[in-house]
Amino acid sequence: MTDPVGRHYGSVIRPDPADYDKCPFAGVTKGDDPIVGIFVGWYDTGDYGIRPCYDAVIRWNDGFAYGGDYNPNTGLWQAGEYGLTEKQVESMARRNRAEPLPGHRFSDRPAAIVVRRIDGHAQTTMEAFP
């Protein structure tokens, strides 16, 4: 396993937005779900200062799932909402006071980068959204 990217905020390690793409799960979750959007907000930890808080969006059945407090080092989020429409995703981001992470904008996605694991190797293709 590679060392996590980012700063320590107590027991939590999160990258700064400029370092997000250096993380092993920046584009795909631990479950190999391609991420179609990342939002970033800010969380006051108290003793450890203000840290970035990432929210990830993936395709889920006929809609989307919104994962709150996504960790791009582990590919996991703390809590999720599932079966959302595009408008509901945007509403969740506004409610969380999160902005689109440059280069990972949900609203500007013309296609998804799909990562598949084949014999332990990642294979990346471009697939248009339906």
Question: What descriptors fit this protein?
Answer:
mainly beta; 5-stranded antiparallel sheet; two-stranded antiparallel sheet; globular; disordered C terminus
Summary of the model, kept short:
The chain is mainly beta and 130 residues long.
Strand composition percent: over 45%
Query: H/E series, N to C?
Result: EEEEEEHEEE
Q: What count of helical segments does DSSP give?
A: 1
Query: Which descriptor suits the 3D outline?
Result: globular
Q: Record the strand order, biggest sheet.
A: 6-5-4-3-7
What's the total count of β strands? 9
- Contiguous low-pLDDT stretches (5 residues minimum) are 109-130
Q: Please tell me the overall pLDDT.
A: 83
Terminal Cα separation, in Å?
35 Å
User: Which structural class best describes the helix and strand composition?
Assistant: mainly beta
